[in-house]
Amino acid sequence: MTTHFMATLPALLEKFGADPEKLTNLVSIPQHMDLELYTTQRQEANLTLLLNKIRDIVSIQTEAEVVETCGRTLEALCGEQCGVYTRCNVARATITDMCVNRYKEAIDEYRTLIEGCNACGVPQGETPDADEVFNVVNSLRKVSIMYMCHNLNDTNIWDSLFDDLPKCLAQNESQMPTQALVYVVRACFYSVVWSLHALEERVASGGGAPAVAEEAAALRARLHAYCAAYTSLCDLLIVFAEQLVLTGGGGGAVLRSLVYEPDAALADMLNRFIQEFVFVHHNYDGSVWGTSFGKWDSKSNGPRTK
Fold this sequence. Notes:
Layout: H1 2-15, H2 20-27, H3 37-40, H4 44-60, H5 64-77, H6 85-114, H7 130-149, H8 158-168, H9 181-204, H10 209-239, H11 243-247, H12 252-256, H13 264-277, E1 281-282, E2 288-289, E3 295-297, E4 302-304
Helix pairs in contact: 1-4, 2-5, 4-5, 4-6, 5-7, 6-7, 7-9, 8-9, 9-10
């Protein structure tokens, strides 16, 4: 199978690029291949073609499942024990940097519009159009998906992401598209979990105490800020739930317009967060283990959700 798809997969990805379902299945194939054959059979050129196609797919596609499968395939290709690791790791860095840079460009343009000033310095913000909203949401979606399998903390986007979080909950929706909320929360979550993973590795390797203490302090600050934001979000969902109509006395129609129902993705993510960090059980050795969200993957030694 590997020998066949090493030669044919790039062309198949090109042929079915407009079909998300077929594309998802095709781009997952390298996860099941013997990647060492790229080296032993001198197929590095086809590997380069494959990596370039994955880059193009991530760049163009808007379907979350396709992008997620690309992220998982990149993870498989970048196994440190694999002979193709160096080449694939460079390609991975190119792809993740592309996703992060597009988010930065989209959010900078969005913020410039709503915070713009005239020549006299008087605030004169504009309302972003549908394309500008889409660019922010789509780029955030890709960042959050890539964060699931790949550590993006070296891109230093925490401050920007965390700055987005309260704006997603602002009464003035123009501050930040509300549909971006789930991706901001998810990306911040993975930033915290990857930081923990890096800190644990540093401690295990006997890293210098001052550096470890400083890293732990920074992580603690981010964790507390994130959990505070998470709590605020949950509180707002409770306040603006269906019971608002039942307890608000008169004006039912007006109050009903304020009822906010989280979509399935947000509700599922919040539920998994609670299970991971609140409803945990103790193993026999005394360690604590959660349920599903953010477990370490045995193959990648990093955060995964599924």
